[in-house]
Structures are given as C-alpha cells and as structure tokens.
C-alpha cells in the first residue's frame, strides 16, 4: 500500500492569507479604514501566548490591524464580559477573538456570548453555531471552517461519506460535525463515553480527530483509503493521530504541524475582513 498524500495546510493557508490581504487592501482603499481584529487573552498560558502572537503576525502580513487586550489570570467573568461588551460596541473594532481556554474560574460561555454576532469572526457564539448549522450566512468556528476548506482544496466531497468526529468540544468537534453534516456526510461523534472507539473509527471514510489526546488514533484503526484530519493541538506539536502508522493506511492525511493549525488562522483573517467589509458597508 502506498503512503497517504499530505494535505498541506501551510501552503493552502498562505494562499488564503494572500487573497485576504488583497481584500483587506480593497476595504482600506475604499473606506479609509483598515480591518481591525481585537485579540483578548486571559492569563499567560505559553501556548495561548504563542497562538495569539501567530494571529497578530498573520494580521500584520495581511494588512489587518490588531488590537491586543491582555488580562490577568485573576480576571473575573464579569470583568471579561465587560471588556468584550466594550469591544463589541467599539466601531473601530471589526472582529473579536477571545483566546480559549480562559481559566476554570471564568464562565467561558458567558464570555463568548458577550461578543456581538457581527464581530464573532472566531465563530464561537450560539448565533454563529446556529447559522453555521443551518448553512446560513455567518461566521464559522475557525478550525472546523479551515478543515472544510482543506477538504475542498484536496477534492474531498463529504456527501454520502461516513465521517467520524472524535471529540465534541464547542469550538472544534461539535461544529466540525455540523459542517460535515451540512455537506451531506453521515456523521458519528465519538467521545470519552464511546464504548468501542476503534470500531467506530474503522468505519470512517473521513476521520476528524479533535480530542486533545496525543496519538490516540492509530493506523490500525484507520480504514484503508480513508481521509484523516488531525485537529489535535497537544504540547510539543503532537497531534491526536499517530501519524507514522496512519500515513500507511490513509489516502489523504494532515500533518501536525503544517495541517489544520495554519488553516485556523487563515480562516480567522478571512472572516475578519468579511466582517470589516460588512460593517463598513462595502
Ligand atoms: N478562541 C480560540 N481559541 C482556540 C482556538 C480557536 O480556534 N479559537 N484554537 C486552538 C489553538 N489555536 C488557535 O487559537 C491554534 C493552534 C495551533 C495553530 C498552529 O498553526 N499550529 C502550528 C504549529 C505552531 C507552532 O509551531 O508552535 C501548526 O499546526 O502548524 C494555530 C492556532 C485553541 N484555542
């Protein structure tokens, strides 16, 4: 059996960022205002600091302004909600990103819901989940949106395929399954209470691993010829899929790093420019 073809998220994301930069320049030229993304980080978790910095760097490359709000780890739900409401009301801010996770003492859902839907470029609010699920115009959760784009780039049509999503988090597993369903895949969610994970994964034409458990999905569980998307972001850039064994069975596979991660940020930038264009009336 030949090895799987790699789905190159770095190259695809670079093309999206270049296209987004052209659109951002158009918005700036026509309105005199550059698209602006506000990033909000609670605490100093090193991985989150890195992710936010990556987002700011990509924004700079694309001609998107970024405004950063760094809050101490002790920030309460009320304080965070207050900050997000202020940014939501600020006409100079077109998109808002609250970096997840925010700390166990904070009600993250309450915080996400303080983001105005028209500025929810990270696709984390109930409103965005609803529009996404019904295939209506709105913003998608960035990693699932990036996954769908990558599948399209590599000619994978989910219609009629069995898709297994391992993980059910609000910003990753759940919306990934909804987007696959919206494209007519037959979707199964697996999670910590799933009885026989290997048996479920073995049925899948498309596997989306989004559970945050390093190398949980092994090659022996992959159906020969399946499409494997590794959305795991564990310490040390280790995915949820055991790449070395999975690459021997899959037809297409995303690497970590260089797969889904860059697509997440590209989607965020793309949606920020869309939000700015709508708010500025162009
Ligand atoms: N509000 C959000 N919080 C979080 C999200 C999100 O989409 N919205 N996703 C993850 C983390 N994340 C973005 O925030 C993210 C993780 C990884 C990457 C990435 O590009 N990784 C690179 C490797 C990075 C490195 O070299 O250090 C890769 O995979 O190639 C981007 C974004 C949790 N929080």
UniProtKB/TrEMBL annotation:
Q: State the UniProt keywords alphabetically.
A: Amino-acid biosynthesis, Histidine biosynthesis, Hydrolase, Methionine biosynthesis, Multifunctional enzyme, NADP, One-carbon metabolism, Oxidoreductase, Purine biosynthesis
Sorted alphabetically, which InterPro entries does this protein's record hold?
A: Aminoacid_DH-like_N_sf (IPR046346), NAD(P)-bd_dom_sf (IPR036291), THF_DH/CycHdrlase (IPR000672), THF_DH/CycHdrlase_cat_dom (IPR020630), THF_DH/CycHdrlase_CS (IPR020867), THF_DH/CycHdrlase_NAD-bd_dom (IPR020631)
UniProt KW Cell wall biogenesis/degradation keyword: no
Cite the annotated pathway. Answer: One-carbon metabolism; tetrahydrofolate interconversion
Which BP terms from GO are recorded?
Answer: L-histidine biosynthetic process; methionine biosynthetic process; purine nucleotide biosynthetic process; tetrahydrofolate interconversion
Molecular function per GO: methenyltetrahydrofolate cyclohydrolase activity; methylenetetrahydrofolate dehydrogenase (NADP+) activity
The EC code for this enzyme is 1.5.1.5, 3.5.4.9
What is the catalytic activity of this protein? (6R)-5,10-methenyltetrahydrofolate + H2O = (6R)-10-formyltetrahydrofolate + H(+); (6R)-5,10-methylene-5,6,7,8-tetrahydrofolate + NADP(+) = (6R)-5,10-methenyltetrahydrofolate + NADPH
Segments spanning the bilayer are: none
Asked if the record carries the keyword NADP, the reply is yes
In this chain the Tetrahydrofolate dehydrogenase/cyclohydrolase NAD(P)-binding domain maps to 141-279
Q: Where does NADP(+) bind?
A: 167-169
Task: Give the function comment from the record.
Answer: Catalyzes the oxidation of 5,10-methylenetetrahydrofolate to 5,10-methenyltetrahydrofolate and then the hydrolysis of 5,10-methenyltetrahydrofolate to 10-formyltetrahydrofolate.
Q: Which family does it belong to?
A: Belongs to the tetrahydrofolate dehydrogenase/cyclohydrolase family.
The protein in question is named: Bifunctional protein FolD
Q: In which organism is this protein found?
A: Streptomyces capoamus
The encoding gene is: folD
